[in-house]
Structures are given as C-alpha cells and as structure tokens.
Amino acid sequence: MTAASFDLWLIGIGTGSPAHVTGEGMQALRDAAVVLVPDKGAGKGDLAALRYHILKASGTQARVVTFDYPVRDPALPYPERVARWHDEIARRWQSALTGAGQAGPVALLVWGDPSLYDSTLRIARRLTPVPRLRVVPGITAIQALTAAHALTLNTLNGPVTITTGRRLRDHGWPEDAETLVVMLDGDCTFQTLPADTRIWWGAFLGMPEQILEHGRIGDVAQRIIQIRAETRARHGWIMDTYLLRAHTAES
Q: Does domain 7-139 have CATH number 3.40.1010.10?
C-alpha cells in the first residue's frame, strides 16, 4: 500500500451459513475493490471454501488476495503470545496489500461478528497507516447458539455475563452471574462446574455439520467432550460455544 490511508471494511459473515451475511454485507462485498482471504493451512480448507462461496454469492468483482495465516507460539506467556501473533497477522496483511495496489476499499470477511471476542479491529489498528475502518455486523455465535436451541439468552429481567474458557478456568463462576456464555474454551472447562449446572452447547453453528447438546453437566459433560474430540479429529478444527445457567435460575 502507499503511504496514504485506505478504506478497510470488516464484514461479519456469521458462524457458517452463507445466509448469515446481511444485505449490507453482501453490498459491501460488491463495492469492494480487494478482498483479503486467509489461508489457515491443511485441514481448514472448508473455512476458505465458505468464504469463496460467499464471495461468489455476492457477485463481487473484487480482486481476491490471499495470505498465509500465522500460528501462535505456545512457548510464550499468553499476553505476549497473542500480541506477537497480532503483530505478525498485521505484517502479513500489509505485505499482501502492498502487492495489490490501492484500487479502492479492501474487505476482510470476519467469522461471526467483528465486535465479539474477535481481534480483527485491534489488528487493523496496527497497520501503517491506520486505515479508515468500517464494520459491517454479522450474526454472532451467541445468536446462532440460542436460536439453534430455541433458547432465550437471558432469564426474565436477568443479567448475562459473556466470558472465555480461560477466565472461567482461572477465576471460576463470576460472582452474581446467572446466565454465563463461554467462548473460546478448548479445555472444556464446564466439566469443573457443579453437576446440576445446566449447559446448552453447540459446534459448527449454522453449518450443515452443526452439533447440539444440552442438559445437566453431570449428565452430558462427558458426551460433549467425546463428541468434541471426535469431531475435531475428523475436521481438523472446531468452533464451539456454550451457555450455562445455575440450577436455581429459570430457563
């Protein structure tokens, strides 16, 4: 890219169904000049295939520019690991766009929604120059999960806490939490909770491979762990999330 700033559009594409992309998102793709598509390596080709399917459905004439997605260094402490990973992603975006010219707006398809436990906005602000950002919201994993289970996110007039598996593992159930939504939990931390806690779990939400389980943790935890391990081995990846309620909370 040149020294001048440019337009970078972050377009939420939902959790696996092309129908999750809003009309605004489809129009943004048609208006974009360049679309950045990550190559996440062997075993994750279906993630790229979904992005290409969405691009085809949009009718965009944008130039597609790919970049290799880096992996995090597990030997580093978590904050440093993530910071370096974000730095490297930004560097690869910058390198890919340098060869793409500056023909107009650049679009990046973001799984889920750019506002929720996604670092695309943070990474974009690492670019030089910082682009003019536009965010097109998408369906979140939380929306897809509650819809799939025909479940309301909150109880009547009740609060909702959104957290990560890491925080649940390190700090336990948040004080005064009634409904807890847990994202990014590769360790199945729910198994450490009281057996009568209720869980609504889903993986590959919105995709043909969607899997759902719900019930008391004491009854379904081991089944979820087994399904998760088998499915991840088969696909090479998995995206899942879950909602928890204490047994005393109403549905």
A: yes
CA–CA dist 228, 225 (Å, integer): 5
CA distances from 32 to 14, 39, 107, 135, 143 (A): 19, 20, 6, 13, 27
Q: Answer for the pair 201, 213: CB distance below 8 angstroms, yes or no.
A: yes
CATH class of the domain comprising 142-245: alpha beta
Q: Is a pLDDT exceeding 50 seen at residue 203?
A: yes
Place of tokens 């990973």: 85
Q: How far lies 187's CA from each of 94, 98, 99, 250, in Å?
A: 33, 39, 40, 27
Count Cβ atoms within 10 A of the Cβ of residue 157 and give its class: 0-12 exposed, 13-18 middle, 19 or more buried.
exposed
Domain ranges of the chain: 7-139, 142-245
- Tell whether the model's pLDDT for residue 102 goes beyond 70: no
pLDDT at 141 > cutoff 70: yes
What is the per-residue pLDDT for 236?
A: 87
* CB 192, CB 174: distance < 8 Å: no
Residue type at 153 in one-letter notation: L
CB 190 within 8 A of CB 171: no
Q: List pLDDT tens digits, range 39-61.
A: 877 667 778 888 999 999 999 99
CA gap 134, 104 in Å, rounded: 13
Q: What is the mean pLDDT of the segment spanning 109-116?
A: 94
Residues 6+ apart with CB under 8 A from 88: 70
Evaluate whether 97 touches 19 at the Cβ level (below 8 Å).
Answer: no
- Integer CA distances (angstroms), 244 to 163, 169, 177, 247, in order: 11, 14, 10, 9
